[in-house]
Design goal:
single chain; about 130 residues; mainly alpha; 5 helices
């Protein structure tokens, strides 16, 4: 494999359509019936390429017609990128995605708002 020749954006699109159903879009692994797909953070480019072509355990095989070598390079490049993404702001929170990160923000904001209401309520009744 030659991931340096791949494209991160194209790799993400390919990973999303072929791999994320089991490995999650952030390549952290997941759960499927009778198996636990591993996270790909520590996998080498060669291991990823071999897994795609051989299909270990319950993973399906992907022929060169399904995923070309050039597309595989892009997938590997995306997986390497997903292991250490470029966080340009905000809280990364383990790179679990915008929905859970937003939910955490709402919980923090709700707690602060509740605290402010309690302080104001005590001042009005005290």
């Amino acid at each position: 494999p030659h991931p340096e020749q791949g494209n991160v954006s194209a790799g993400m699109a390919l990973f999303r359509s072929h791999c994320s159903g089991c490995h999650q879009i952030v390549a952290e692994g997941g759960y499927v019936t009778n198996a636990v797909p591993p996270g790909l953070g520590e996998a080498t480019p060669t291991q990823i390429a071999e897994a795609v072509r051989i299909g270990p355990y319950v993973m399906p095989t992907f022929s060169q017609q399904a995923i070309s070598d050039r597309q595989l390079d892009s997938i590997i490049r995306y997986v390497r990128y997903a292991d250490h993404p470029d966080n340009r702001g905000g809280w990364a929170l383990g790179n679990i995605g915008p929905i859970p990160e937003g939910l955490v923000s709402w919980f923090i904001a709700g707690t602060v708002l509740l605290g402010v209401c309690l302080v104001i309520g005590k001042r009005l009744h005290g």
